Amino acid sequence: MSRIVVVTGTSTGVGKTVATAALALRAAGSGTVTVVKPVQTGIVDGDSDAGEVHRLTGCGVQEYTALDEPLAPDTAARRQGVRIPPVAEYADRIRVLAEFHDTVVVEGAGGLLVRLDTDGGTILDLAAELAETLPVEVVVVAGPQLGTLNHAELTVGAIRARGLEPAGVVIGAWPAEPGLAERCNAEDLPRVTGLPVLATIPAGVGTLDREAFREQSPTWFA
After folding, report:
1. Closest among 136, 110, 139 to 23, alpha carbons compared
2. pTM of the model
């Protein structure tokens, strides 16, 4: 049976897109993969997270809703005066993709409870709905900086409250010269979340070309 990997973050800017690319490449080693970005905001000159994942990996990508302003999707849609689909529609489209791929990697927007539609639906709602019919693995991307333990524990607690057990944590944007806070956080994240650290992704690797990204990404996983 196909599986869904839902990539969420403790906040915006923690490295979800690069983590999504790395997870997609890892899954591609054992089957067919496609990547979905249900909602993208802040479109500038055609740049998008889905496009970046494709550039880094070569994997097929889909983007369902694109909004101009770099805001939460429901806010951006309201300001733009457009209707955006409810989470249930995204779930239906992802289920169709799962019929043709071994793994569908779904990247959220911002943090776990950011509203993806104007009805209040979130990436957590999307994961829970998909889990009714398909195996779903939720991966939490957390930054290494001070404050991440609180953000990670809150995020993981919210996921568990919906009856889902996250697969693990990915630490994004790991600095070349980590300080005391970063080193301690890397040690403490498994303790406070009860989850394994699946990968630690160095800062700046999103600027690599595809060949270098493909070559280096396996070294980031535990």
Report:
1. 139
2. 0.95
